[in-house]
Amino acid sequence: RQEFVDKIAEVRTLMPAAGITTDVIVGYPGESDADFQQSFDLLEELRFDKVHVAAYSPRPGTIAWRTMEDDIPAETKAERLHRVEELESRISQEINNSYLGSVQPVLIEGIKGDQPFGRTETGKLVHLESPARVGSIVDVSIDHAGPWALRGTAVNALQLA
């Protein structure tokens, strides 16, 4: 645990704006309430930009499927999943709020309907309220932050050949 915490701290020291994500499986065979709480507390402490979370389910051919009993009730898995998702939503909203009023370079990845979207240098999804070409890098003034995405208006654009 401490080695993991130290590595995250080192990354944040070297790159304060780094967008750090992690994957979590809740309800893994043998996970006690105390085990889950330790993981939950660590997620709260480290405040990841994104947590990809899933409830454990047996996958044929895996070591866990061959050697471990799926001993965590479905209701417990669902409750743990919900708790992590709520925590992730709150932390993501707080982190994304810090982008409000800033100008971020955004690489335009696509257009859905007539709305361009792309990602910041830290991987944040941004929806633009102004036109932009796929492949361009656009300075975007961020005027809205949700837990899963940002929204803003182009300040200028660098068109790639």
Structural write-up:
By secondary structure, the protein is an alpha/beta fold. It has 2 domains: 96 residues, Transcription Regulator spoIIAA; 56 residues, Nucleic acid-binding proteins (OB fold (Dihydrolipoamide Acetyltransferase, E2P)), CATH 2.40.50. Helix content is 35%, strand content 30%. The protein is built from 4 helices and 7 strands, in the order αβαβααβββββ. The strands form 2 sheets. A 5-stranded mixed beta barrel has the order 3-4-5-7-6. Strand 1, helix 2 and strand 2 form a beta-alpha-beta unit. The longest helix is centred in the middle third of the chain and has 24 residues. The radius of gyration is 19 Å and the shape is elongated. The N and C termini lie far apart (46 Å). The relative contact order is 0.13. The mean pLDDT is 94.
Keywords:
single chain, 161 residues, alpha/beta, Transcription Regulator spoIIAA, OB fold (Dihydrolipoamide Acetyltransferase, E2P), two-stranded parallel sheet, 4 helices, elongated
Approximately what portion of the residues adopt beta-strand conformation?
25-35%
Major sheet description: 5 strands, mixed, barrel
The SSE order reads HEHEHHEEEEE
Please state the CA-atom Rg, rounded to the nearest Å: 19 Å
Low-pLDDT regions: none
SSE layout:
Blueprint: H1 2-14, E1 21-26, H2 33-46, E2 50-55, H3 63-67, H4 74-97, E3 103-112, E4 115-119, E5 125-128, E6 137-145, E7 150-158
Parallel strand pairs: 1-2, 5-7
Antiparallel strand pairs: 3-4, 3-6, 4-5, 6-7
Helix pairs in contact: 2-4
